[in-house]
């Protein structure tokens, strides 16, 4: 390749370390970059793109792929700042949308398809189970959805399903998947798995289309390669097959997503898949102090399925990791709150630079109770996304109807917002008429108004409601054609009586209206950034957003999140709670060495998020699986050398005076008159009073099925607060 004059005047030799520079200056042929946590992975990828541009590679021939919108935007911004050029850097799903918008007609769908998120696709699947007579407790929709997702990720079809697995499920999976697929197509919709599955299918069945994309993207860069599932791997391999200029960055020690189909086999077999591949290790960590890194290194060395790699700190030794042993989870939460307050008040640290990680979501309850009582500001990361809030989903559904005649899920969501008298039976008949006559759901409405559907007798209220709805959708469509996105979203909020619907719930109206105003703000931003943006593209932007894209370390609140959600983030002060057997490692990993290794990687990921201080905690007693249990400290604690730890809290050898009953009683002392509770024999009841009896703390509870209150001793009753 002919070297051109560098138009950007970047001094690559000075701005990169030796390993990064080697990776950046590798031009043609496959390369695997093993980049440890905090080693400047994003910097390496962005500088390689800049280096390619400096050599005269056209920006249109470069494609960068990553997993989150946040990572893609960060990478894009860095490249633009370095080069003043715009390179296509995208998530896998956005790339899939782009390919399908151009060529999905070859698979028999319209290019104006809707994208169904988890909630929307689940509604479709449940309707399929109902129509097939499988809507009972034996056939959980989530199990079918998970099985279909797994098969799509493995590039199977309903004719070639993997025969291993739950036989009862497999007996029905093919027909469920077939109907689910047909129904999606009749709504002109795809689900999230289709955004990878269908492009790969398209490439496999159309050599000319594949060749066009191979020529378009001659230099491929993939971030977080260890997180690819089989469909993503196939997509990458097909795109890179012709020119083989594939540059992947990843870390097998951070492979923690096998539960959603990712396999670290792809990164471990990269040299076999791409003969002649160069491998470089980037091990200098610029994030964490050495003590944290050495402890993490010692932990991950216990795993066998990995490349040999060791993080090396450049910031100095730092403080020992604090290991705290609590009596129970309330004391654990109290310790975390104490430390957060101390860091904030005594050391003037920002709450926004502090985070607490846990293995499963239920562990946040005790923390939230403690933080609320002590006025510690917090936010839960990965909880309900802004884009999953009811009012936002409602407005997006209205916008989808402005873009598509066929989107039945959006139609069924909006037709009664506000109420228009269209019940489920009428909806079912409108849908059946559309399917039978192969017309859209809106055309079905038009024909129903004209009396063409003899099975559908509409009341005057229904006729008026459907007419009003169709007129409103038509108005939105006209606005979409000629006006800004701000005008369109504003019309959807203010001109369709939707606010009238929200006002029916007075206590939540103000919050929901604020969220709608925020969506309007998003539309204004969109207009500023996309002069020629279409409604279709705006909907893609909204649909492909996730709650993790909304995470900001600048917000002055402590971040609470699962260890899985911590990946890719960093904080000055990190707490990891619940280091106990059956929690971390999780009980589900008992029977599998591979799953145990993934649990170890999960802790490794959490530890390497910490920049300055790291706290690990475990409890001797915890409510788990419905009862108070004695907990054993996690084996992972023993795998961290003592020289890196300082201990505090209850002693392991201390002869305890607190009995399980006393601890159990402590959990129930906060029950007060008026609280709703559940008892395994008596059901739901209301606490009327509490008092001390000869047997200890006692509650008088009136149960729904009883005429008179019952007196129950707290330590035996195991009442559950609702």
Automatic annotation (TrEMBL):
CC per GO annotation: cytosol; DNA helicase complex
UniProt-annotated binding residues for ATP: 35-42
Pfam family, any one: UvrD-helicase
Domain named UvrD-like helicase ATP-binding: residues: 14-289
Alphabetized PROSITE patterns for the sequence: UVRD_HELICASE_ATP_BIND, UVRD_HELICASE_CTER
Enzyme Commission number, as recorded: 5.6.2.4
GO molecular function, one term: DNA binding
SUPFAM superfamilies: P-loop containing nucleoside triphosphate hydrolases
GO biological process: recombinational repair
InterPro entries associated with the record: DExx_box_DNA_helicase_dom_sf (IPR013986), DNA_helicase_UvrD-like_C (IPR014017), DNA_helicase_UvrD/REP (IPR000212), P-loop_NTPase (IPR027417), UvrD-like_ATP-bd (IPR014016)
Keywords: ATP-binding, DNA-binding, Helicase, Hydrolase, Isomerase, Nucleotide-binding
Chain ranges of the UvrD-like helicase C-terminal domain: 290-568
Catalysed reaction equations from the record: ATP + H2O = ADP + phosphate + H(+); Couples ATP hydrolysis with the unwinding of duplex DNA by translocating in the 3'-5' direction
Gene3D superfamilies registered for this protein in UniProt: 1.10.10.160, P-loop containing nucleotide triphosphate hydrolases, PCRA, domain 4
Family according to the record: Belongs to the helicase family. UvrD subfamily.
Name of protein: DNA 3'-5' helicase
Record gene name: pcra3
């Amino acid at each position: 390749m002919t070297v051109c004059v560098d138009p950007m005047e970047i001094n690559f030799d000075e701005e990169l370390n030796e390993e990064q520079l080697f990776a950046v200056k590798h031009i043609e042929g496959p390369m695997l970059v093993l980049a440890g946590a905090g080693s400047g992975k994003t910097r390496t990828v962005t500088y390689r793109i800049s280096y390619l541009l400096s050599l005269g590679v056209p920006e249109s021939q470069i494609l960068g792929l990553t997993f989150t919108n946040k990572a893609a935007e960060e990478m894009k911004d860095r490249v633009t700042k370095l080069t003043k050029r715009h390179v296509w850097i995208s998530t896998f799903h956005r790339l899939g949308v782009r390919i399908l918008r151009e060529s999905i007609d070859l698979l028999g769908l319209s290019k104006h398809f809707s994208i169904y998120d988890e909630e929307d696709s689940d509604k479709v699947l449940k309707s399929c189970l109902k129509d097939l007579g499988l809507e009972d407790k034996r056939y959980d929709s989530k199990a079918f959805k998970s099985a279909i997702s797994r098969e799509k990720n493995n590039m199977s079809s309903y004719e070639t399903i993997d025969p291993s697995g739950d036989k009862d499920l497999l007996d029905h999976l093919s027909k469920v998947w077939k109907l689910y697929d047909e129904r999606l197509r009749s709504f002109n919709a795809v689900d999230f798995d289709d955004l990878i599955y269908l492009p790969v299918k398209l490439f496999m069945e159309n050599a000319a289309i594949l060749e066009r994309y191979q020529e378009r993207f001659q230099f491929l860069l993939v971030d977080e390669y260890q997180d690819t599932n089989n469909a993503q791997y196939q997509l990458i391999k097909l795109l890179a097959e012709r020119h083989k200029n594939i540059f992947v960055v990843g870390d097998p020690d951070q492979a923690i997503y096998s539960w959603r189909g990712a396999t670290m086999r792809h990164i471990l077999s990269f040299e076999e898949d791409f003969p002649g591949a160069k491998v470089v290790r980037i091990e200098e960590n610029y994030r964490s102090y050495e003590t944290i890194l050495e402890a993490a290194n010692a932990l991950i060395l216990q795993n066998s399925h990995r490349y040999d790699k060791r993080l090396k700190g450049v910031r100095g030794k730092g403080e020992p990791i604090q290991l705290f042993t609590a009596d129970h989870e309330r004391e654990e939460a109290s310790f975390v709150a104490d430390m957060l307050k101390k860091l904030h008040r005594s050391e003037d640290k920002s709450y926004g630079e502090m985070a607490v990680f846990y293995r499963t979501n239920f562990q946040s309850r005790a923390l939230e109770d403690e933080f609320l009582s002590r006025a510690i500001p917090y936010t839960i990361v990965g909880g309900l996304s802004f884009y999953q809030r009811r009012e936002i989903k409602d407005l997006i559904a209205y916008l989808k109807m402005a873009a598509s005649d066929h989107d039945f899920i959006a139609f069924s969501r909006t037709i009664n917002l506000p109420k228009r008298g269209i019940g489920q039976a009428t909806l079912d008949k409108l849908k059946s008429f559309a399917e039978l006559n192969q017309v859209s759901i809106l055309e079905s409405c038009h024909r129903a108004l004209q009396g063409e559907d003899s099975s559908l007798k509409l009341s005057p209220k229904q006729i008026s409601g459907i007419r009003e709805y169709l007129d409103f959708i038509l108005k939105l469509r006209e606005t979409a054609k000629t006006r800004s996105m701000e005008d369109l979203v504003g019309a959807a909020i203010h001109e369709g009586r939707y606010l009238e619907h929200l006002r029916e719930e007075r206590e939540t109206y103000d919050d929901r209206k604020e969220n709608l105003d925020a969506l309007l703000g998003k539309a204004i931003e969109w207009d500023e950034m996309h002069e020629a943006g279409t409604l279709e593209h705006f909907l893609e932007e909204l649909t492909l957003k996730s709650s993790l894209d909304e995470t900001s370390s600048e917000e002055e609140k402590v971040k609470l999140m699962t260890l899985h959600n911590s990946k890719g983030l960093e904080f000055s002060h990190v707490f990891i709670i619940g280091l106990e057997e059956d929690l971390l490692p999780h009980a589900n990993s008992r029977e599998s060495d591979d799953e145990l290794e993934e649990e170890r990687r999960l802790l490794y990921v959490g530890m390497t998020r910490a920049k300055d201080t790291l706290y690990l905690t475990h409890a001797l007693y915890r409510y788990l699986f419905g009862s108070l249990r004695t907990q054993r400290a996690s084996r992972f604690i023993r795998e961290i050398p003592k020289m890196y730890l300082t201990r505090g809290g209850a002693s392991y050898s201390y002869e305890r005076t607190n009995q399980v009953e006393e601890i159990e009683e402590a959990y129930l002392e906060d029950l007060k008159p008026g609280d709703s509770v559940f008892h395994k024999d008596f059901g739901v009841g209301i606490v009327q009073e509490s008092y001390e009896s000869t047997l200890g703390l006692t509650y008088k509870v009136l149960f729904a099925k009883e005429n008179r209150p019952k007196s129950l001793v707290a330590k035996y009753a195991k009442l559950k607060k609702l």
